[in-house]
Amino acid sequence: MKLLCITDPKTHPHFDTTISLYKACATHPEIDFFHAPVNSIDCSNQFKVVPISGEISTNDFMRLDKHPLQVIESSELDLVFCRADEPVPIDFFQNLSHLEAKVRFVNRPSQIVHTRRKDFLEEYGKAYLPAHIFSSSYKEIEDFFQQFNPIVAKMNISYGGAGVFKIWQDNHGVHTDNVKEGLISYPSLKDVVQHLSELDADHDYEFVQFLQNIDAGDKRVFVVDGEIYGAILRKSQTGTWVHNVTSGAAYYASTVTEREREIIANTYDHYSRRGVYTLGYDFLMGNNGEWVLSEVNAGNIGGYDWHQEVAGEPTMDRLIQWLLNFWRC
User: Fold this and answer.
1) Considering the domain 2-115 in this protein, what is its CATH number?
2) What's the pTM?
3) 214 Cβ partners below 8 Å, 6+ apart?
4) Which residues, listed in sequence order, are joined to residue 227 by a DSSP beta bridge?
């Protein structure tokens, strides 16, 4: 199988799944492996690639974009697995989408445009989410805030916790907490909403009830083509309410409850029928002590190797075998 992965190595710290994926694919006897930089994707029918074979180190991975690029026709490839992190160039998915008739994608880029948005889940999974709204109306946001203070604001498209803000009010004003910006105080909620709109004016934010059991951590359930591979629990090591590993959280083996299996069974088809097969379901501990759905990450999912490490299961091997079976079918 001729497999192409697209990523920007500079966005991947040493613990990221993409590095492990590259290492596994580069040494697999059934895979001819290629890398394409994110910024090399254009509207042509060709890819500019770096062939990779044999053992590669983390340093080799980080320097892939330093290599000279070779041109390969998209039709010469068997499978493309996009591993690009947000933010991507504005025309990135559009440029990839026109190649869907020429080469098979693990996750169709024309559909990732929709499924990567948090509001995609609204139509199919609203009943499983905590109290929330998608809105840019200050009146709606204010009413929701007054009902649930504190709340969390989530950018519709974000990565690694950078687009998530806790918002609360006390006798000293209205405050936000974000992994990039830290703690900021504002005179009023209106000032907070104005700041959020300046950060992303193109999409409505999702405003969610802040869950009091957030200290329990953030559970990630790995789903590939409808099959549940397992789960990890991510927990902050610094006491912060954000549990992303990219923000310093540790990860542990976890279990998948029957309720979580039910939620996945009732929502997965809405992704797979659009040609999006690799999903990360994230769950938080609800105020009633039961895990509730937080969001579904579609496409570029990290953590397969973390699960393999802490659960002692061949998770990465299972993913690679699925890629081979997916190509053959």
Assistant:
1) 3.40.50.20
2) 0.94
3) 241, 243, 284, 285
4) 224
Q: Are 203 and 157 in contact (CB under 8 A)?
A: yes
Kindly report the CA angle at 258 between 257 and 263, in degrees rounded to 5?
A: 100
Residue whose token pair is 């004003």: 173
- 196 is written with which tokens? 């959020």
For the domain spanning 213-323, the CATH number is 3.30.470.20
Domain ranges in the chain are 2-115, 131-209, 213-323
- Residue 47, both tokens: 């890819």
Question: Which structure tokens are listed for 93?
Answer: 């998915």
pLDDT digits (tens, 9 = 90+) for 110-140: 999 999 999 999 988 999 999 999 999 999 9
Model pLDDT for residues 135-154, shown as the tens digit of each residue = 999 999 999 999 999 999 99
Cis ω on the peptide bond leading into residue 150 (within 30° of 0)? Answer: yes
Q: How far apart are CA 252 and CA 233, in angstroms?
A: 5
